[in-house]
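## Example pair
The file below holds two records. Each record gives the amino-acid sequence first, followed by its structure token line.
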Amino acid sequence: STWGGLQRNNTCGRHPILKMDDFKFDIDDEDVDEDNFQGFASTRDGVVFIIDSDRSMFDVLNPRESDKTAFEIVIECVENSIKNKIIGGTKDLCGVLLMGTGKTKNSSNFVNICIFNELEWPGASSVLALENLRKTCRSRFIDDYGGHSDGYAIGEALWLAQSLFTIFSAKSLGSRRILLFTNNDNPHRTDTAKFRAGRTKAADLTENGIEFDVIPVISDGMGFDWSKFYGDLVIREDDDGGQLNPIDSASKIEELMERIRIKHFTKRSLCKLPFRIGEGVQFHVGVFAMIGETRKPSAVKLEKRTNQEVRCRTSHVSMTTGQSLLRSEIQHYTEIGGRKAVFDVDEKKYLRDFGDPEIQLIGFRSRDHLSPFDHVKSAHFLQPAESLTSGSTCIFLALLKRCIARDVTPICKLISRKNSPPRLIALIPRDEINEDSQKTPAGFHVIYLPYKDEIREFNLESLPKPNPNLVQSLKSVVKKLTFTYNPENFENPALQKHWRNVEALALDKESVDEMVDHTEPDREMIESRAGLYINQFRDAVNREGFIVPVASASGTRRPGDSMSGSSTKKAKVDVDVNYYFKQGLLGKLTVVQLQDFCSTNRITYKSKKKQDLLDAVNNFFTKSS
């Protein structure tokens, strides 16, 4: 391999044979990124933010909640959106236009429009520029941008935003979007020419595959009449091609951020596969990932002197001749019974070929016979792909409805991509649900079933039945601490800490933003709600002859942590030694517990041996009685 100009060669013997374990002879789906599914094309998106800079946008939006103006809220929204793109590791492009400024700053000399950021991959400079604009817009906006003006034209702003996309080819951008933030529902109420030009330009955007959307920013109780101007300009479609109504107005930063996140995180299928029901019956479906683990970005190796990224290059060299070997000159082997079974490239490729990517129906199984623990990886979700095969939606919905009506689960074989081993999957049907304005789409959950080889059997000893009083006591604790779990309420503290430190380093902040760890238990709440029941349960367990230690009040240190130096202090335990003495169970106490009791009651003992401690404690209680 080559790292910063240094080359490392993998050498072979006289016969260039490499062990197959080094080349992942059998591919495990768990080690493959979901973006590598067959048929998935990785693309980047481009988005241009147009921000209305009219004088009314500089009024305080909601005086009861904060003193932020509508313009400041929008800038903060765009700033956080760009941060999310940077943190997400995407290669999306972002641009920012200010519409309604007193000055003009663009190559086409469209009046009262300024290009704040060209369409580019955002970095620290973009975030710092937006942060500076947000902090100084009240005091320096007139000096920097000439104040406010209503002489702009929506059509010219859209034309300018579209021109920012022209430096990139259509194939290099998966989608192109223009988002307009404004509080004015009728900007050209007296200018018919500008009104018509805006209509024409919005239609041109749709024809050129550019999505245009408007996000109203108005205070509570104020209306935004779409019919006056923007209703005819905005065309929004859902994933199935149906037209959606214009989005409602937003007045809070949280609502605006949710709007932006909806626009950025578009639904993309991991792959599109043919679904075969039988001979001659086939339609196409899309596979979607409902949940995916978010990881920290992998470290990039840099050359120490120049700080430039290094590239790795591997070459196979013969140990006898020192010459580089071609791929056709290399064989692979695996050891079986102490002998080497050698395969060439074509034979290895044949061993990995299980057919074309598809989903093949095997049969049906009652849902009652499917255990919730019968899965080996995260589930996916199926929906029809009408764009590939006409009529896929009709067949898909017919299969879904019959499975729901009969309460059965289709069992299928899945080959997700070429040279991928087949997996057995169960398709759990789910009907469409509408609750609290949240729409849950209809489709099948893809559950990856285990093979016989993947099932582990354990010969575990049977556990004794607990005392009914203990069970009843613990039920009270569980009842008091039961809460409604929602994963959206918990952020990964490791990721939050990592990105806060990265942000502080990149933006030259003096301090790191404070982080709230929502996974940390609320000890005060637990004590107030279930403290009494927890103590009762501990006493009941102690009466059964078990020892339940009580941690220190902080309860935050790990067993191996220490407050100072290398010494380790163990937390003291609260044990009713008198109860154990009366029950004749002193021998169940540990040496540490006996030592703590002796130290508290100033009892002298010969040595730290357990028997000497037991004798000292027995003498103490005997004298006391």
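Second record, same layout:
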Amino acid sequence: MAGLGRPPVGEVDDLASLAHLDEESLLVELRTRYNKDTIYSYVGDILVALNPFKKLPIFDKKHAMKYKKVVKSHVPPHIYYVADSAYQMMQETGRNQCCVISGESGAGKTESTKFIISHLVELCQGKTALEQRIIQVNPLLESFGNAQTIMNDNSSRFGKYIQLKFKQGQVLGAKINEYLLEKSRVVRQADQERNFHVFYYLYCGLDEEDQAKYCLGSASDKRYLSNGAGPLRTHKKELSEGYDQLQTAMDLVGFEGLEQENLFVALGGILNLGNVEFDGDTDRSSVGDPELGLKNAAALFGLDPMQLADTLTVSVTVTRGEQIRRNLGVHKAADARDAIAKTIYGRLFSWIVNRVNNLLAPPVTVRQSDIAEIGILDIFGFEKFDHNSFEQICINLANEQLQFFFNQHIFTLEMEEYKREGIDAASIKFSDNKHILSFFMQKPIGLLALLDEESHFPQASDLSFLEKLSKNFKKLDFFERAKDTSSTYFTVTHYAGAVRGLEMSTHDRQSRGCNVLCWLLLAG
């Protein structure tokens, strides 16, 4: 029963107004609201959004109309209010605004981004082709940048910052910055996970003639589709619809027919590159049966098969103007193959983003001083899997940076304000994560700096890198090496918990020949 003057549990819209602001009280309020399908709550200026994992009738035109020039206390918490607040503040002050969306994988960040963009378009009464093209950017990027994971069927495997540009309240254009694409997913996926959506779209959306043109062959034979062709049988209708949505998005955004075809050529080349196999030993290698991927990959990339084979099996360095060729063993040749595939896909994704930016850029006749913008940062949430790699290091580091920002915004700056006003805030305690950021980013002795240094040594290995980490960080209580000294795994304890099973690979940086291949591919 609610106490005197206290609202019933689950009826408080702004959790910052609770009489007892502790973890248990917050969770009880959020759980009660969630059970009533009230998925939005405020904590001061921050909106807490809980994924309902079902469709709710709160995103239709009727609800959108309620969140136009509205007072916060007059309407229930909603993602539309965040969009309206940013839009009205931009209109009133002429200052740029920014919305930061963060949360764990599966929390609903991608959908929240879509809701903010669609409501901003609604607020400026956007009915032109430009606004519709901006809305279509999300399904386009999701096709190439999202994948099914254990936790989320449509997980964003990259971060993005979307800048919507306005003049006198009307959308003029947009710009996208992409971060941290999970390129390792291109060459291998964990059990029950998939590669990026677009690879499966090709098999379910293209007819047999087009599949043959891009040398797709059988999905079950592709090394880079680690878990086989199962999804093509169990989710054929869904994947076919995804292909249709991709085609619609590319058409509406403005991609020409030849550009679309070249994208599919590149994807076919990557899948065939993954099937290249090697014969040899630890000292030298050669491409095995050229019919297993090499000929098709070379043809799609517009390369001579021997040139591609040489790139995969020989390392070339230039010292004082002299070329030094080193033969690569079987394992290093396979690493080179995968590094090239990842780099090509990364360059391809960046090309798509740059093309979108060119197509959606504001008219050059508009003065920059007349443009205001609303930025939307959609970044990965904290990640912890059974096996974690360089991507998880980068994702979790980004979240540490966001946590530091929130700490500064919510605690540090507020406590300084309390001090100026003579309010005792000694009882407010929070976890400062500066030491974690220093561990990763400090120069010259930080994890990233040490990885960069180690990657320049020809004989560097995952184990030699771990030895270097252990030497420098063994006294830190948030770093722990596996007890098995032959193992290359280690643990880092973040603000959100310990991430075990981390393994870095110095080979991730060794992408010999990638620039040449990417240039030939994208220039063609």
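Notes on the second record: The mean pLDDT is 88. The two ends are 71 Å apart (CA to CA).
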